[in-house]
Design a protein that fits this description.
Heat Shock Protein 90, five-stranded antiparallel sheet, alpha+beta, 5 strands
């Protein structure tokens, strides 16, 4: 009876023995670290359990969000941004945490995506892209740290 129940549960929940994977990164202020993070995710996700589209979406979103952190926040060796990524059968989740004054990118105005490039205001398009690509995108501010969470379901 127990084997039967295990088989039913296995079939209901994917049948795979894929265990959630977690990675932790520090971004210390250099743009090349973002590329290294994406390369590490690429190698670590080679199990084939995570669809390419979900992984690529999170990589694009991380690139945008971390580039903004490196460019505008006081990220440094002594004040690194922390990035925690979890991959499981249901989703890819990334949490970026960095010390700075409170800044909620979700409060930025939506850019006019129908305007011509010449008429478009600079800024905000990358955050808009992240909002559109991710299934979840949240911001919190705790203990002097901005915490951005993105989730892409698959």
């Amino acid at each position: 009876m127990l084997d039967w129940l295990k088989q039913v549960l296995s079939n209901l929940f994917g049948g795979s023995k894929f265990e959630p994977q977690e990675w932790h990164f520090l971004i210390k202020g250099e743009r090349k670290e973002i590329g290294a993070l994406n390369d590490a995710l690429e190698r670590a996700a080679a199990s084939g359990e995570v669809p390419d589209a979900a992984l690529r979406g999170v990589q694009v979103a991380l690139d945008e969000l971390l580039t903004n952190c490196v460019s505008y926040a006081p990220i440094s060796v002594n004040n690194p941004a922390k990035v925690d990524v979890t991959l499981d059968r249901r989703h890819v989740k990334a949490v970026i945490s960095y010390a700075d004054k409170m800044f909620n990118p979700l409060e930025l105005a939506t850019p006019d995506v129908n305007a011509s490039i010449q008429d478009r205001e600079i800024g905000g398009l990358g955050i808009h892209l992240v909002k559109e690509m991710m299934d979840e995108f949240t911001h919190a501010y705790e203990d002097g740290r901005n915490i951005l969470t993105i989730v892409k379901k698959h």
